[in-house]
Amino acid sequence: MPWKFTPGKLWSPHGNSWPASSGPWGKGRLPDGIYLIERPVLTREKGMIDNNDLGWKARLVPQFKTERFALLIHPDGGVAGTMGCIGISQPLDTRPLYNELLHTDDRLLIVDTSPAEN
Fold it and tell me: Which residue from 47, 57, 65, 96 puts its CA 20 to 30 A from 40's CA?
């Protein structure tokens, strides 16, 4: 079962979820489609450190043609919002998400930001 990003949430294949957003900076939110999630790596980059001083990022590789690049999942530190990445909203301890991304074999992410049908 794949990961899923919908407006306001990132869902793991195990049913866990985290508050998340994408955009509005740069070229806006992440394009809808299927991505491969690379294993997360630790970082000290500004804006990618959670409230418990854990900094990390996981690269997203689009499985479709797009001009967008440098798309990531990371803690949304600093100014709220991202430049197209999936930012995990603050305040939040992101270690459980980091660990799940690090140890899961489920590497696909479905991004679907279309409004839900009634």
Answer: 65
